[in-house]
Amino acid sequence: MGKVKEFMKKKDIEISLKRYGIDALGAMAQGLFCSLLIGTIIDTFGKQFHIAALTNTVATIKDTPYTVGGLASAMSGPAMAVAIGSALKCPPLVLFSLIAVGFASNALGGAGGPLAVLFVAILAAEFGKAISKETKVDILVTPLVTIGVGVFFSWLIAPTLGSLASYVGILINQATYMQPFLMGILVSVIVGVALTLPISSAAICAALGLTGLAGGAAVAGCSAQMIGFAVISFKENKWGGLVSQGIGTSMLQMPNIVKNPRIWIAPTLAAAITGPIATCLFKLEMNGAPVSSGMGTCGFVGQLGVYTGWLNDIANGTRADITGFDWAGLFLISFILPAVFSLIIHTGVKKLGWVKDGDMKLN
Question: What is the pLDDT of residues 238-248, one digit of tens each?
Fold first, then answer.
């Protein structure tokens, strides 16, 4: 047993919730952002501003035409796998071999491909790390083992994991349509809390394919956390804090939350209020890339995702146009209401003596 631990330590194989549930999951979201999400943004930008270089076909593969953005989106599987491998500190031969693993697991995972990539890439990466530099023909053995293990597990578990993730996502979406008030609260609060925790709400939304009304609730919850913390901590952090939290991440407050969890009350309750408003009043839906549902106001990706979804709906005939009510709902849910509700609730929390000035100061 001691030799096994020593070997794993030498190979930097750490079986832990932090390594897999935080580091790998967070990296996967970055890989997804740099492929699928950026590809979607490029396509949307090209279509809206009629930029031929971005809307013209640049490659045709098996009768499927691809734009620049389309090519970026098509590489989401390899991008996620390589990002995961980077987080797991894979040596070069393992890291590069994960490109094939990511493609296989994402393709076989179907709609739930991101979840399949997460599990399969971790398995392939750790097997690859274990064999790396253990033979004199490392340049042959390490890629063969990494790709072999990855493709085998892609065949073995990716379809099941993908179907499971897709089923859970569909269940959440359908439940939100059936019970928009209750599910609006639950989805908004849970995904919003995940955004602030050192895990990836974007990766969770992508893995579950969280779109539609549930996606809209997720956008509301994430926006409430980011805008909420940005506004209620303005006295301590000024404009720099407003920007870094409001369009960056509310995760910056995690050290302060550990010190005083009560600072989390205002943004979380704000999410519980804006979630059902989004689902019941404005019928806010995320019909863009699922990863956008878990981004909130980070780089305004959540809002861009909703807008992209509107364009998709117009293109497929399920929406006639974008109304003023749609825009009002998006801005109210994303920016105005989270700020107002968070400030009101935070004032009450401070009067109770649960939070004091300086509790949300960023280092």
Answer: 999 899 999 88
